[in-house]
Write a structure and sequence with these properties.
The protein has 174 residues and is an all-beta fold. It is built from no helices and 14 strands. A 4-stranded antiparallel β-sheet has the order 4-3-6-7, with no helix packed on it. Strands 11-10-13-14 form a 4-stranded antiparallel β-sheet, with no helix packed on it. The N and C termini lie far apart (81 Å).
Length: 174
């Protein structure tokens, strides 16, 4: 007859704040009879992994802080107590700007466009004229002087997150 050793509480739990649309939770291995790990977000089970896996990627998709804990699971013994909680949140990718519109400029030889940020982690915007990147700005309006003079200039805007990349282009206006 043999007796198993109950798993120790997982230690060194971390939750990465640098993933786009996800949180990477990792921990150090427990000792004892470990068959797997259960991962909890705000005391709700969100995932399970095998005993040799020490990482789990959660996708809460809400860009708010959550507390993560890990429990070592054993089929032979009682499960461990939950680890110490660790708070983390995902970085939301930049979303497509909306409401792109031309504003009456102060001068007749320039074009001013404004838009609304679509949300997410936006560091700056890219302004495209006739499909070519013309400028970057942290503002939600941009004024430019066309190089070809009078005419129609299709304009679109994207949002950029330094961590998550560039959104799709907004709808174009002429």
């Amino acid at each position: 007859v043999s007796v198993g050793e109950p798993p120790s509480i997982p230690t060194d739990v971390t939750a990465s704040d640098s993933l786009c649309d996800g949180v990477s939770v990792s921990w150090s291995a427990s000792t004892g009879d470990v068959d797997g790990y259960d991962i909890y977000r705000d005391d709700v089970l969100v995932g399970s992994v095998a005993g040799d896996v020490l990482q789990y990627t959660d996708q809460p998709l809400d860009n708010v802080d959550h507390t993560y804990t890990v429990v070592a699971v054993s089929t032979e013994c009682d499960d461990s107590a939950p680890s110490t909680g660790y708070t983390g949140h995902e970085v939301a990718a930049a979303e497509v700007p909306t409401g792109l519109a031309q504003i009456q400029p102060e001068r007749c030889d320039s074009i001013e466009v404004c838009w609304t940020s679509g949300g997410g982690d936006v560091d700056f915007f890219k302004v495209y004229v006739d499909g070519v990147e013309m400028a970057t700005t942290t503002e939600t309006c941009y004024t430019f002087e066309p190089t070809e003079g009078a005419g129609t200039y299709p304009v679109a805007v994207s949002a950029v997150s330094n961590e998550c990349g560039e959104s799709a282009l907004s709808g174009s206006i002429d």
